[in-house]
Fold this protein.
Amino acid sequence: MAPEDIILRPVLTEKATDGIATKRYTFIVLKTANKTQIKIAVEKMFDVKVKSVNTVTRRGKLKRMGRNEGYTPTAKKAIVTLTESSKAIEFFSALQ
């Protein structure tokens, strides 16, 4: 599987941007991806060394629109910590 298929998009919230200074980056990833696949995908896409990967599966919320109801999509977040000697990811450098 290609790295672009595993890493779907970055998370650009206030809490996620606080971790950029300590080389912690947050991404929305494929729901079926495991930590090893995420680590390899980040290393190939951004040419960095990954120290650890933490994952969180966020269940979809129940939403109502009048009498109709449904769930928002379930998503999986990966918090990737880089090694001390690794360079920063250039995409996030403009956010600091």
Summary: The beta strands are 7-10, 24-29, 50-58, 62-65, 68-71, 75-82.
